[in-house]
Q: What sequence folds into this?
C-alpha cells in the first residue's frame, strides 16, 4: 500500500532564506506525487505535481520539487521564502490518478520568521 | 467558474441531527471523492466514486452515506451526528492521468 511520510511537522525559517520540506513515499508501483498548500482556514491549493517525465517539477509561487526514485523522495524547495508562505504543506501520492484517491502525509507547518 | 464547489462552507449543528453536504464539479472528471481533515489537520480519504459507482469505502461509520446522482455530483449525508464528526470535509475530483482538484471544504461543527 502507498504511504507518504513528511519527516518534519514544523519548519521555522527566516524570511528570504531557502527552505526544503521533506517527503518520502513508499510504493511498489508507479506513483503520482503532489504537493498542496493550505493557508489558515482555507482549502487545498495544488503547488505542483509529478506524473511522469522530467524529475524536476516547477510549481506556483516559486516552489519546485525533485522526484528521486532511488531515494523514494519528493522534497519541496523554495530558494527564498516570504511571510506569505506561512501555511501547512501536504505531500500526497496516488498510484494511478484514478479512483484510488490520494494518500496524504501528515503535513508540515512552515513558519516564516521576520 | 469554480471547478469543485461544496455547500455549505460552514455547518454548525447539534448532536443527533442529520445533515448533508453537497459537491459539484464542472471539470468533466469521472471520479469524485470525500476526504476528512481532522483537528490535527490529517487528511484521509473516506469514499470515492467513479461514474456514479462506489469504488472506495474506507472504514467510516455507517452513519456516513455518499450519494452520486450523476458523475458531476457527490453528496455526503451524515445521520445521528456525533461530537467526533466535527472536522473539515473536502470534496475532490480527478481524471486518470491528471491531477486532483479539491473543493474549498466544509467546516462541520457538532455541538
A:
Amino acid at each position: 500500500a502507498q504511504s507518504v511520510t513528511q519527516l518534519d511537522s514544523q519548519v521555522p525559517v527566516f524570511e528570504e532564506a531557502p527552505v526544503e520540506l521533506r517527503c518520502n513515499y513508499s510504493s511498489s508501483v508507479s506513483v503520482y506525487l503532489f504537493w498542496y498548500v493550505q493557508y489558515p482556514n482555507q482549502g487545498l491549493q495544488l503547488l505542483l505535481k509529478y506524473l511522469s517525465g522530467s524529475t524536476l517539477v516547477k510549481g506556483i509561487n516559486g516552489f519546485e520539487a525533485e522526484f528521486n526514485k532511488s531515494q523514494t523522495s519528493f522534497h519541496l524547495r523554495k530558494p527564498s521564502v516570504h511571510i506569505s508562505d506561512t501555511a501547512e504543506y501536504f505531500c500526497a501520492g496516488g498510484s494511478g490518478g484514478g479512483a484510488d484517491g490520494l494518500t496524504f502525509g501528515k503535513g508540515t507547518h512552515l513558519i516564516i520568521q521576520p | 467558474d469554480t471547478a469543485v464547489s461544496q455547500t455549505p462552507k460552514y455547518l454548525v449543528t447539534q448532536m443527533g441531527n442529520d445533515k448533508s453536504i453537497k459537491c459539484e464539479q464542472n471539470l468533466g472528471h469521472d471520479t469524485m471523492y470525500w476526504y476528512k481533515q481532522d483537528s490535527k489537520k490529517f487528511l484521509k480519504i473516506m469514499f470515492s466514486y467513479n461514474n456514479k459507482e462506489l469504488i472506495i469505502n474506507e472504514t467510516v461509520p455507517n452513519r456516513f452515506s455518499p450519494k452520486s446522482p450523476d458523475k458531476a455530483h457527490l453528496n455526503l449525508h451524515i445521520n445521528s451526528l456525533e461530537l467526533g464528526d466535527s472536522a473539515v470535509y473536502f470534496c475532490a475530483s480527478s481524471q486518470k492521468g491528471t491531477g486532483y482538484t479539491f473543493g474549498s471544504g466544509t467546516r462541520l461543527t457538532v455541538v
Q: What stands out?
A: The mean pLDDT of chain A is 91. The first strand of chain A starts at residue 3 and ends at 5. The interface with chain B takes residues 32, 34, 36, 38, 41-44, 46, 49, 51, 88, 90, 92, 94, 96-104, 106-107 of chain A (CB under 8 Å).
